[in-house]
Every structure is written in structure tokens, then in C-alpha cells.
Amino acid sequence: MRLRTFGNATIIVSSVVCDDEVLPAISLGGEEIPSLLNWIEEADARLVVHVEWAVRVKQCKRVVIVSNDTDTFAILLHYTPYFQALGLEEMWQQYGTGEKRRMLPLHQAA
Questions:
Q1: Residue 11 and residue 4 in contact, taking contact as beta carbons nearer than 8 Å
Q2: Which of 34, 48, 52, 80 has a Cα-to-Cα distance from 25 of 20 to 30 A?
Q3: 62-92, pLDDT tens digit by residue?
Q4: Alpha carbon distance 97, 3 (integer Å)
Q5: Would the pTM of this model clear 0.90, i.e. be above it?
Q6: Count of CB atoms situated within 10 Å of the CB of 102
Q7: CA distance to 8, 19, 33, 52, per residue, from 2 (Å)
């Protein structure tokens, strides 16, 4: 996990599971973020925890997820009203590659 801020945007790169071991969520300053450490192996489900943290703790108003997985869209669509209740205004999923890349507005689809 790395946090990087560019202007008003906070970029979050999440932790990963490697050989059944969760690699720690670390901020740019090298500090662990314990609330993002979990044993959820499915990346789609881990995204929910990370988005919730970004909205609740970092008070992010806009979240962009880069994923070509339709399961990601479905699970995040399910949680979008919850994220909106926490203060999220926009959640986008970048889907596809090259000229077929699209930005899917989960906040409008919900």
C-alpha cells in the first residue's frame, strides 16, 4: 500500500496476496496501515475494504478503480450506496484497453 498525493488527488496502491501471505499495506512514508491488512484472498472483495478506508478515513470524494473484471463492477456496484452514505460522490471503473478503454460510472449506475 502506497499513498501518493498529486495536487488534491490521493493515489492508493493496495496490498497484495503473494503465496498465501498478505504483503503489508505501507504508506509512502513507510508506515503500516493496519486497517487495510486482511486475509481476503479475492482481490474484488479486498477492493471494498480499500475503497471504504479511502472514503471514511481519507475522505475521498472520487475513486477510480482500474480493473477489467466484471466481478469488480458487480461487487462495487453493490456497495456504492454505502460508500455514498459515507460521502463518496463519484466512483469510476476503468475497463478495457487501448481504444476500447471505458470509464464506467458506478455512482450513476447505482
A1: yes
A2: 80
A3: 888 888 888 989 999 999 999 999 999 999 9
A4: 25
A5: no
A6: 10
A7: 16, 21, 10, 16
